[in-house]
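Task 17 of the worksheet. Students: predict the tertiary structure of the chain below and write it out as structure tokens. Keep your answer in the requested format; marks are given for formatting as well as content.
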Amino acid sequence: MNQLERFRVAFSGDVTLADLFDRLAKANGEAALVEEDDSGLKLTFAEAADRVARMSGGIRDKISAGDPVVVNASNGYDFFLICMAIIRAGGIAVPVNPQMRDEEIEYVKGDSGASLTVQAGDEIMGEPVEPATASPDDVAGIFYTSGTTGKPKGAKLSHKALLGSGVMMAAYPAQLRRDECVSGMPVAHIAGFSILLMLACGGIPVFLLPKFRPDKALDAIEERRATMFIGVPAMYRMMVEAGAEERDLRSVRLWASGADVMPEELIRKFKKMGATATLPVVGASVGEAAFVDGYGMVELGGGVAIRFSLPLMNLPFASNVVSPLPGYRLRVIDDESGDDVRIGQVGELVVKGPGVMKGYHGKDDATKETITEDGWLRTGDLARKGPLGLVQFAG
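Model answer:
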């Protein structure tokens, strides 16, 4: 692996999704990137970069720069690579959940203005082309909200927003660890998409479960001696029901969750199932694993803050305290005045940082209601301002 190239990815400031896989291939070469359950897909960083380059070659002649392209492929790693190929070709990726109804997908097509839909990577293969010229502030993707309070809205996310702080993972020397992550996160969801970006930047191979089954997830962790697992709370509950506590999961050093609030009881259970380290020579696992519970939303390009539960530390007062990721700031404001609330008071959580969307596609009024004039995004979530700048969720 080329550590100098990894540092360039982490710190150059000009990395975009258009050339990301070219850079990661230089940094990681033939190191394993992904293995997929059921499909048998296996790719190194170099193989993935070549596939992205060839798919972008097939798309380049079908679109103009800045055209939105809907991705309606099966859940899996190729979904992620198709999005990267569209961006590499100069387009804007518009992912849709393959479980959405036809009328919902048609709404996204019409609202985004997309004239092209991609359903499989093999249908767009062409000759490799050079990546399109892009700026970190250019729109790279339009991710749609769930539409629970009305019609879904398309959040316009820049290269910088989608990379977030995950690009900094490239600075961590891969030679010092032997990590592998098992993940069941759906790729079309902003959390699943951003996690795959983070793992790729970090040079961490992933065993992906496109169709999550708790027994399969437990088998993968146990047999592969995975050091990380990333899922949503429902997946953790399903694994407990499938007998997780009877399995040998001591290889796991870090459990992670996102997309919903993780119950404290489950956090404690899974911390005990993992371990802090394995003793040399004797090979015995000691301690507990760590647990990270991420907070984010579509309009923030994914995760922007975490609850971090360290091994052997189960502090009730800290269970709902969140810490911003590098580059992000959190405030708690009065909903009417917009001023910061006092310590101990509840208000609305607002966030500022590189992941804040550029706006809702075609919805200027909704954008103005969500993003303040000085760039803070109103999340709509209730939080309590704590001492020393701490923020606690209140809802």
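Marker's comment: The longest strand covers residues 377-385. The longest helix spans residues 45-60.
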